[in-house]
Amino acid sequence: MILLVIGAAILSLIYAWWLRRGVLVQDKGTEQMQTVWEGIREGALSYLSRQLRSVLPILFFLIIFLYASVAVAPPEPQAVILFGADALIIIGIGRAIAFILGASFSLMVGQLGMRIAVESSVRVAQATREGEDRYNRALTIAYRGGTYTGMLTDGLGLIGGTTIFIIFGTAAPDALLGFGLGGTLLALFMRVGGGIYTKAADVGADLVGKIEQGLPEDDPRNAAVVADLVGDNVGDCAGMAADIFESYEVTIVSALIIGIAIYADPTHWIVGMPALAVIVFPLAVRAVGVISSMIGTVMVPIWPRLLRKREVYAEKAMFLSYEASSLFTGIVTMFLAYFYVNDIRLAILVIVGVLLAVSFNPITSYFTSLQKPPVQEIVKSADTGHATFILSGLVAGYESTVAALIAIVTTFGVAYVLFAVDGLIWVLYGIALIGIGMLSHTGNNVAMDSYGPISDNAAGIGELSPGDFEEESQKVMAELDAVGNTTKAITKGVAIASAVIAAVSLFDSFVIVAGLEEIGIRLDNPLVFAGVLLGAALPWLFSALNIKAVTRAAGEMVREVRRQFKIPGILEGTVKPDYDRAVGISTTAAQKELIALVAMTVSIPLMVAILFGGDNLAPLGGFLGGIIISGQLLAVFMSNSGGAWDNAKKAIEEEECDPERNMGKGSERHKCGVVGDTIGDPLKDTAGPALNPMIKVVNLVSLLLAPVLVTYHFGSGIAVAGIPMDLILAGIVGLLALLTFWAIRKSRKPADFGE
User: Could you tell me the pTM of the whole model?
Assistant: First the structure.
């Protein structure tokens, strides 16, 4: 079975290579199109290169930390059984190498996926100029460019976790934690940096270009327009791909940790179920998911030939393919559970996870779609001004959190009903399987998300290449771009939900590793409740500083765009704006803001973990629970509020322009829409998505420290080299407090809005 899993992972990478080859052989269009595209490509690659140089020192420090985290604590009993006296050294090196592997794979998914997305956009634009079948050709290139990233995520995530299990066997949890932290930390870097970059450009372009000058989207006279197009790639391609990749690998890590804990204790075994199957089954399900994603994604270009209404071709094709993948996974998993594991309940939970992912389509669509009541109400509220427009969007965001939470809690209830009779550890394993099922179609999810910026960039290239596109070509690009906005909103919802499931799985793993399975985490303990409150506060602080970073960067961008509009000839279209300067502002701003935010994310949980460490780690468990609850609600609210405002603005733009009736572009209602969309941008594309990896980084750090904190804590009476442990820990907490103070102070620096 393990060999079949490895085979499926390799097949995924081969399929990705075939997709890449199919995109690159397409025509790149006219010289003017290629000039615009080259500016986007250089800006994106330059940003990622600078980001990598910024994060490498931190990664080097963490490699040492990971090795030391094993060296100062006794290894797991399974490691001692397998490796004997050398267990400490082998596991320490293994964890450090696994960290490098996880970080490298996350980086590869983000970097390589973004490069193909950039390559695809100009080819999509050119495809809209060619022949009667231009719609389907453009759709095929755009979707396959996104699918490349999705299949890369599937292949690398599956082959990484499975290889570590093959090498370390039942001692794999120690190394797997390093693998998960590597991927999650890189995702945090790429999410935060990419989000700040893209929204600094977007906000600057909208506030000055649309509101102050009344220019259309992607107008070539706007200096920030190329930076905005670059931002779509570094934020929605590189950042989102790394985000979903780390959720994909973290759910594997959690399932294997809990599965190995079950396997190691015969008292947990279920009669008739092969003991080792409980470890291998999650990997086998992911292998099935790889095949189902391949089947679904390859069918997308086929569906439009069977449908009659072109305006819904792309969206329907993607949804039908997702449903086909879901059906295939459900059927094969049922056979796998019945014949291989001898327990159909495992398949039911995987299917529940698949259905949870599917359910976020209607949930997100209801609160963000142009055709649904919440967005229609927001559009109507623009008649009475900015305040009512903003308030209506807040209402939609708040309501959406309740619907999303009910869907997630329902799946936990199913796991409890099915496995409560077998003990708590089986319930926790069931929740991990829900995460395995939810992300089994990562290929489809990432494909739908990356399709969005590819089609958006294609439309931008069309706007910046006047004279190269006829009316029919522009219509096709506009339709594909509109579908991309919908798919991006849906995949953001799936990404947030998957992050919550992954975080809960990590939390369950922490409960087992920390020995809290029997004693529980009691809220009537004041220390535990204090931990919950502190954990619940962290996502709010993190989000506030994220939005503050966007505000500072956007203020600088606004001043630059205003300056360039004052240059004679810019507004008249006779002088070309300095696009490179705007790109440089976004790049520099993102790098300046990135390090402090990530440093705070690592230092605060380390400090809390040490302060709450001891024989009973329940207060630290409360801290993790508070982060998950608060972070999930806040992330869904920000994502859906921003999406609702965005689509409400688009609905106003699609109205027939009639100044007397206050309708369409340029009207006061349109200005309300632009302001709402501008407020929502950092919520849905920076702060909200960045919470996904932040929550998991905190959980993984706590998981790594749990065995250490049980041995080395305040009041333990241990001395190292003659220095009391209490003094050492006080010094570490002091250094972490200074680092946290520096990070928060730097991130709270006031924005410069000029005179």
Answer: 0.86
